[in-house]
C-alpha cells in the first residue's frame, strides 16, 4: 500500500498536546495504571531487571530558543517518555528558572509537577546580594516547604561569579546540608574550574551533566580524584564507560540522567540495562545513588510499561534482542588500543571488545570501516585495519573502504581502488570530510564510477551544511545506494534527509548521533517511509547501547522497528550479496 505524502504540519498536529503541564488538568490525576508494585532490593541477576528502579537524575521541560517545531519540550512529553521507558521517578528542571526570574519560575515548576508524586523539582539558585533571590536561610525554608532536594546553578548563563567572596554564604549553606548541586562544566568555566569548585566545597555533592564523550581525558581523572563529583551519561556516551568506571571503583558516583524530553530516556537506560557489571551496582546507577544523595528513604513506586514489545522487554532484561540487528556504521581500532588520537578515547575499541558487545546486543552483522583511515587521514593504513578486523569477525560482517584524493593522484587512486576491492569482503565506500574535497568534486569520480559499476553503497557524512553532495551523487550514480550518516542527529537534519529521500529512491538515512533526540526516528519514518531508515551506532566512538536503546524504546510499531534494525539494511546490501563470501553475509533467519 503506498505511503501517503508526508506533511510536517499534519505530523505536528497529530502529535501535539495542549501545552506545558496540560496533563495537570486532563483528568489523569490519581492512581497511575503503570505503577506495578513497590520496588525491592535485588541482589542477584536473573530477573533482577524487573525490580530495578530507574530514577532519572536530570530532565528538563519548558520553552527554549531556536527550537525546531517538532522537538519535545512539554511536561506531557516527559511523562509519556517516562511511561514508555519504565522510568519510576525523575528530577525535573525548568528552562524558565534560568531564562526568567529564578524564584518566580522555581515556584511555578513546583506547582506544575505537584500533582505527580514521582516528579521532584530542581530549583535554580544564585547569590542573594542583588535583591533578586532569597538569602540562604530563606531559601532553605522555601526548599523545605516545597520538598526541593536538588538545585542547579548557572553562573555563566545567569552572569554571576561563583568564585567571588559574596557567594560563600550560599555555598556554605548548600555544603552544610549536602544539597545535590547540578550544573555543567561550561557553567563553571573550564575543567580546571570544575576541579577548583570540587576542592573548595569537598562536602557538596556535585553532578556534572552534559559532558561529551570527547572530554574523557579531563573527566575520568577528576572523577577518580574527587569523590564528591558525580557524572551522568546523557552526552558522555563513552564506549564501555560503565564497565571501566566500575573497574576503577567509581560506581557510587554514577547517575542515570536522560535530559528527557529533549533526549530519549530509553537510550540512556539501555546503557545500564546491558552493562556488564553486577546487578547491585547496576541498581545503584539506575537510581540507588541518586536516592541516597537526595536523602529519600521511602522509594518511589516501581513503574513498568505493561504494553512494551519484545524488544523493550529484552533490552530491560539485558538480553540479546530477539530479532536481527545490523549496524550500518561501525568503526574499528587496531586490537588492544583504547585511543583514536585527536580528542578520542575508545575503551576496548578493537575487534575483541566490539564483537563481544555486538554479541551481547544481538547483532547479526554490519558494515565495518577503519578509524585511522577515516578520521586519522591515513587511508592506505585504514583499509588493512578493516581487513584485519574482518579476519576475526563473526559471521555477517563486511567492509567499507576509504580512499583519499588529497594525498594521492588519480592514477594512484585507480590502482588502490582495484587492489582493495579485489577483497570481495569490501562492498562499501566511506569518504570523509577531512580529505578536504566535497564529495561531488571530480577528484572522487574514479571511485564513484567504480562503485556504480559494481553496485556498491556509500556512507556519507556530509561536509556541507546541506545535502547537495548526496543529491548530486544520487542522480549521477543511480546504481549506488547513498546513505546519509547521522540523519537522526537533529530535526533539522531529518528534514533535509527526508527531502533528499523524496527526490531519489537510492537515498537512505542512518540515524546515529549523540543528541538522540526524542521522537526524531518516528519523524524520519513518517517523512520518508519505514523502508528507508537504517540503524547505525558509530561505535566505538560512542557506545552502541545508547544508539540501540534510542530505537528500541521508540514508539514505532514492532514491525517497523525490525525494518530499521536490519531488514532495510539487507535491502541496501542486496545487490552485493552474491559478491560477498558466505561468512560475510548477514542473515535475517533464525540462528
Characterise this structure:
- Residues 326-570 form the Amidohydrolase-related domain.
- Pfam families: Amidohydro_2 (PF04909).
- The protein is α/β, with parallel strands linked by helices and 591 residues long.
- Helices cover 37% and strands 13% of the residues.
- The protein has helices at residues 8-14, 75-84, 96-99, 102-113, 136-145, 168-176, 185-188, 191-200, 216-225, 241-247, 265-273, 279-294, 310-317, 351-361, 379-391, 410-421, 445-454, 468-476, 491-503, 520-528, 544-552, 558-573, and strands at 35-38, 55-61, 89-94, 119-125, 150-153, 180-183, 206-208, 229-231, 301-303, 325-330, 363-368, 397-401, 426-429, 457-460, 481-484, 507-510, 533-534.
- Strands 10-11-12-13-14-15-16-17 form an eight-stranded parallel sheet, with helices on both faces. A seven-stranded parallel sheet has the order 2-3-4-5-6-7-8, sandwiched between helices. A two-stranded antiparallel ribbon has the order 1-9.
- Strand 2 (55-61), helix 2 (75-84) and strand 3 (89-94) form a beta-alpha-beta unit.
- The longest helix is centred in the middle third of the chain and has 16 residues, at 279-294.
- It is elongated, with a radius of gyration of 25 Å.
Please summarize what this structure is.
The protein has 591 residues and is of the alpha/beta class.
**Fraction of helical residues:** 25-40%
Low-pLDDT segments, ≥5 res: 1-6, 11-46
Radius of gyration: 25 Å
Mean pLDDT: 92
Kindly report how far apart the N and C termini lie: 31 Å
User: Strand pairing plus helix content: what structural class?
Assistant: alpha/beta
Question: Could you give the order of strands across the largest sheet?
Answer: 10-11-12-13-14-15-16-17
**What's the story with the biggest beta sheet?**
8 strands, parallel
Shape: elongated
Number of β-strand runs? 17
Amino acid at each position: 500500500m503506498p505511503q501517503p505524502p508526508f506533511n510536517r504540519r499534519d505530523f505536528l498536529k497529530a502529535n501535539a498536546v495542549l501545552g506545558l503541564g496540560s496533563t495537570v488538568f486532563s483528568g489523569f490525576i490519581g492512581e497511575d495504571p503503570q505503577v506495578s508494585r513497590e520496588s525491592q532490593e535485588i541482589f542477584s541477576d536473573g530477573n533482577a531487571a524487573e525490580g530495578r528502579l530507574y530514577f532519572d537524575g536530570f530532565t528538563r521541560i519548558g520553552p527554549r530558543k531556536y527550537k525546531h517545531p517538532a522537538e519535545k519540550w512539554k511536561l506531557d512529553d516527559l511523562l509519556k517518555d517516562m511511561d514508555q521507558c519504565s522510568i519510576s521517578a525523575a528530577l525535573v528542571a525548568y528552562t524558565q528558572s534560568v531564562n526568567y526570574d529564578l524564584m518566580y519560575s522555581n515556584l511555578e515548576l513546583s506547582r506544575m509537577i505537584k500533582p505527580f508524586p514521582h516528579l521532584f523539582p530542581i530549583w535554580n539558585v544564585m547569590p542573594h546580594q542583588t535583591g533578586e533571590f532569597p538569602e540562604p536561610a530563606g531559601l532553605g525554608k522555601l526548599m523545605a516547604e516545597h520538598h526541593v532536594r536538588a538545585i542547579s546553578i548557572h553562573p555563566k548563563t545567569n552572569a554571576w561569579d561563583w568564585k567571588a567572596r559574596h557567594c560563600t554564604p550560599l555555598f556554605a549553606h548548600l555544603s552544610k546540608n549536602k544539597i545535590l548541586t547540578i550544573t555543567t562544566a561550561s557553567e563553571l568555566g573550564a575543567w580546571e574550574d570544575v576541579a577548583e569548585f570540587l576542592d573548595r566545597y569537598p562536602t557538596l555533592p556535585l553532578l556534572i551533566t552534559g559532558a561529551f564523550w570527547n572530554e574523557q581525558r579531563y573527566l575520568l581523572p577528576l572523577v577518580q580524584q574527587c569523590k564528591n563529583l558525580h557524572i551522568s551519561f546523557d552526552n558522555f556516551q563513552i564506549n564501555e564507560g560503565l564497565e571501566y568506571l566500575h573497574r576503577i571503583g567509581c560506581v557510587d558516583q554514577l547517575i542515570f540522567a536522560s535530559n528527557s524530553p529533549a533526549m530519549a530516556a530509553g537510550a540512556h537506560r539501555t546503557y545500564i540495562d546491558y552493562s556488564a557489571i553486577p546487578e547491585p551496582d547496576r541498581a545503584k546507577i539506575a537510581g540507588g545513588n541518586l536516592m541516597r544523595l537526595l536523602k529519600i528513604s521511602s522509594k518511589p513506586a516501581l513503574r513498568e510499561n505493561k504494553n512494551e514489545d519484545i524488544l523493550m522487554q529484552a533490552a530491560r532484561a539485558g538480553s540479546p534482542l530477539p530479532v536481527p540487528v545490523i549496524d550500518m556504521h561501525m568503526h574499528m581500532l587496531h586490537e588492544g588500543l583504547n585511543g583514536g588520537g585527536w580528542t578520542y578515547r575508545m575503551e576496548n575499541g578493537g575487534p575483541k571488545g566490539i564483537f563481544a558487545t555486538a554479541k551481547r546486543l544481538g547483532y547479526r552483522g554490519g558494515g565495518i570501516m577503519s578509524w585511522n583511515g577515516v578520521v586519522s587521514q591515513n587511508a592506505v593504513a585504514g583499509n588493512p585495519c578493516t581487513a584485519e578486523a574482518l579476519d576475526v569477525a563473526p559471521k555477517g560482517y563486511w567492509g567499507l573502504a576509504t580512499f583519499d584524493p588529497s594525498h594521492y593522484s588519480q592514477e594512484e587512486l585507480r590502482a588502490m581502488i582495484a587492489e582493495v576491492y579485489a577483497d570481495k569482503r569490501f562492498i562499501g565506500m566511506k569518504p570523509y570530510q577531512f580529505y578536504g574535497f566535497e564529495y561531488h568534486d571530480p577528484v572522487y569520480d574514479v571511485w564513484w564510477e567504480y562503485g556504480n559499476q559494481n553496485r556498491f553503497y556509500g556512507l556519507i557524512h556530509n561536509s556541507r551544511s546541506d545535502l547537495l553532495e548526496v543529491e548530486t551523487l544520487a542522480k549521477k550514480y543511480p546504481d549506488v545506494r547513498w546513505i546519509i550518516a547521522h540523519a537522526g542527529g537533529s530535526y533539522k537534519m531529518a528534514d533535509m534527509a527526508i527531502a533528499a529521500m523524496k527526490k531519489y529512491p537510492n537515498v537512505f538515512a542512518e540515524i546515529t548521533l549523540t543528541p538522540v533526540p526524542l521522537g526524531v526516528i518516528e519523524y524520519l519514518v513518517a517523512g520518508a517511509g519505514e523502508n528507508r531508515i537504517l540503524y547505525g551506532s558509530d561505535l566505538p566512538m560512542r557506545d552502541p547501547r545508547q544508539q540501540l536503546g534510542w530505537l528500541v524504546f521508540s514508539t514505532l510499531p514492532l514491525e517497523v522497528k525490525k525494518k530499521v534494525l536490519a531488514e532495510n539494511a539487507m535491502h541496501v546490501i542486496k545487490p552485493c550479496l552474491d559478491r560477498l563470501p558466505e561468512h560475510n553475509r548477514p542473515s535475517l533467519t533464525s540462528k
